[in-house]
Amino acid sequence: MRRRSLLQALPLAAAAPPAAAAARAQQQAFAFDHAVRLVVPFAPGGTSDILARLLAPELSRAFGQNVVVENRSGASGNLGADLVAKAPPDGHTALLIDAGILATAPSLFTRLPFDPKRDLQPATMLIFAPYILAAHPSLPAKDAAELASFAKEQPAKLNVAHSGIGAANHLTALMLARHWGAEGATMVPYRGGSAALAAAASGEANLIVNGATATQPFVQNGSLRGIAVSGPRRLPAFPDLPSFAELGWPAVESGTWQGALLPGATPAPAVARWEAELRAALAKPEVARRVSDLGGEVRTDGAAAFRAWLERETENWGRVVREAGIKLD
């Protein structure tokens, strides 16, 4: 009798959906019914923009709706972030941003028009790309040792382009200058990474710290000279460039962390659908290969991991901002 009861129970156990199936059911519970906006809070040509335009066709197919990349630059990325924070929380508007912007903003601004923790809902981190430290060919420093020496001896001749005051690449440049004993270097803000890259490539500035995804082509075509890369290891595309870790330089973990977020009150099924489809898009071999070719690594760890990262990095970068005495309002 006991044997028959167990056998009768087996079909019911097999029919019970595992956790993965339940999660998938939640994702499929949300359907897109009109065009989707993917807001990039920077000008075209930077890392976020490149990634958004790589993902948009994949998401259009997955959502069954047109996904439009919308560049809304200004206020160090906060203008576009605020636009998404105040958008209808219906799953049809998302933000693709260098998440370091959201981690530094609470310390940089006394008053923000939105609360990053309350008004933006993480969907998932997307990629990590280390920074490339690169110099204009006119700068008389051929490698890391020569640059550190030049920076210490002639800091006033160093003009460092960055994507905006308080941006993570600006703070990284400040940490490097302090390490070299070059506090007198001039930090030159631009409206986003693409504008900073153009300035460095033209010689308007002579040094830049910027995401590998956007900077790599400039190094490859000789417009900029690669010096080093952030992170614990060298980039496969530039095996001769030492890492910050092996040089003993600070800001080893700095880089561009690209993530996707939705308005804070977006329903859980919509967030789950975004998380799943972004992960699926970046798992496609051709997309992952393109990210790798651009110096990035896919990092789709999901909403919970992204939220934990934001909390940790907000604390870490807040300390750097306070030490540098930077305030934007």
Keywords:
about 325 residues, D-Maltodextrin-Binding Protein, domain 2, 2 domains, ten-stranded mixed β-sheet, 10 strands, disordered N terminus
Query: Regions with pLDDT < 50 over 5+ consecutive residues?
Result: 1-16
Task: Supply the CATH class of the largest domain.
Answer: Alpha Beta
Secondary-structure-based class equals: alpha/beta
Overall geometry comes to globular
Distance between the termini: 77 Å
Please give the share of residues in helix. Answer: 40-55%
Please provide the ordered H/E string of secondary-structure elements: HHEHEHEHHEHEHEHEHEHEHHEH
Largest sheet report: 10 strands, mixed
Radius of gyration: 22 Å
Counted by DSSP, the helix tally is 14
CATH architecture of the largest domain: 3-Layer(aba) Sandwich
Number of domains: 2
Beta content comes to: 15-25%
What do we call the CATH topology of the largest domain? D-Maltodextrin-Binding Protein, domain 2
Mean pLDDT: 91
Write the layout of secondary structure elements.
Layout: H1 2-15, H2 19-28, E1 36-40, H3 47-63, E2 67-71, H4 78-85, E3 93-98, H5 100-108, H6 116-119, E4 120-135, H7 144-153, E5 159-162, H8 168-180, E6 186-189, H9 193-202, E7 207-211, H10 212-220, E8 225-229, H11 244-247, E9 255-263, H12 268-283, H13 285-293, E10 297-298, H14 303-324
Parallel strand pairs: 1-2, 1-3, 5-6, 5-7
Antiparallel strand pairs: 3-9, 4-7, 4-8, 4-9, 4-10
Helix pairs in contact: 2-12, 3-12, 5-14
Keywords: Signal
Signal peptide: 1-21
InterPro entries: BUG, Bug_dom1
